[in-house]
Structure formats: structure tokens, C-alpha cells
Amino acid sequence: MNNKGLSELITTVLIIGFTIVLAAVVMTWGSGFIKNLTLKESSSSDLQLECNKIDFKINEVKVGNIMVNGETVNSLYGSISNNLNTKIDDFIIQLVKKDGSTIPVKPAGETYLSLDPYQTLSESIPISFLSSAPEINDKIRIIPRLKIGKDIQSCPISYAKEKVITG
């Protein structure tokens, strides 16, 4: 009889111990999962809040010849201004053809191009660098990218600006 009671006691202790260990594992996993989910959500809402604080303008975009080291180079020239006190850390620049297709001029993170508060920046890109030559009445689309925490993230496309290319 004593052996039977001892066996039930050990079984009960083992079941309670297993339940406690299982609960601890689930709580550890769950808290990490919730924390990660919350960080992703706050990062997304932080990006939205920061994107609301920017205002930039594409002043002009032209196709033409410029002088580079004494040589005439056919290039795409543009000027952009930051109208507010928020730094724009990077841009994605796309050529939007008449048929609606897009060609990257400067993909995200390829070359570092930032715009400080209230700064105006002029850039020219030799057309030979592009996979398709821009034409008059094509558009340039500029999508701002901002530093959120340690990462630079692209604002939604609704924050992009477009400008028709002139000659």
C-alpha cells in the first residue's frame, strides 16, 4: 500500500513540475513575440509620424548637356528643396516613362543623398548611367526615406513627389 501512495505523490509532483516548466516556456516565447510585434507596430507608426513632418519640392528636372571636367555630357539635371525643419536622410529616385513603367535612377541605399532642413540641392546624372534614356514629358518620382531608430526606411508612395521632365 505504501508503494502505491508514494507513486501517486511522485506522479503528481512530476505533472505539476512539467506544467510549471511548460508555462515558463510559453510565457517566455509569448513575451518575446508580443515585444517584437509591438516594436514592429511602433516602428511603422513612427515612420508614418515622421513622414507627416516632411515637405519637399522638386523645383525642376531637365534633360540637357552639362559640362563635366571640361567635357559636354548629356545628363538628367534636377533641383530639390526641403521646405521644413526635418532632415530627409535618403531618396529613391525613379524615372516614370510615358507608358507608366518605372526605371530606378537611384535605388534605395545605392548612393547616399540627403537633404538637410531648408536646404536646396542640385544634382545631375549622366544619361549613360541610366538603363533607359529619359525623354521630354517622362516624369521623375522621388520617394523620401527617413532614419527611424537605427534604420533608414522609405515613406509610403503617397509621400512621393513627381515632376515632368523638360528640355
SSE layout and pairing:
Elements: H1 2-51, E1 56-68, E2 71-82, E3 90-96, E4 102-106, E5 120-126, E6 139-148, E7 151-154, E8 161-164
Antiparallel strand pairs: 1-2, 2-5, 3-4, 3-6, 6-7, 6-8
Report the CATH topology name of the largest domain: Immunoglobulin-like
Percent helix, as a range, is: 25-40%
What is the CATH architecture descriptor of the largest domain? Sandwich
Overall average residue pLDDT: 82
Main sheet? 5 strands, antiparallel
Elements, N to C (H/E): HEEEEEEEE
Number of helices: 1
Low-confidence stretches: none
Shape: elongated
CATH C-level name of the largest domain: Mainly Beta
Global structural class: alpha+beta
End-to-end distance, in Å?
102 Å
* Secondary structure tally: strands: 8
Which band does the percent of strand residues land in?
35-45%
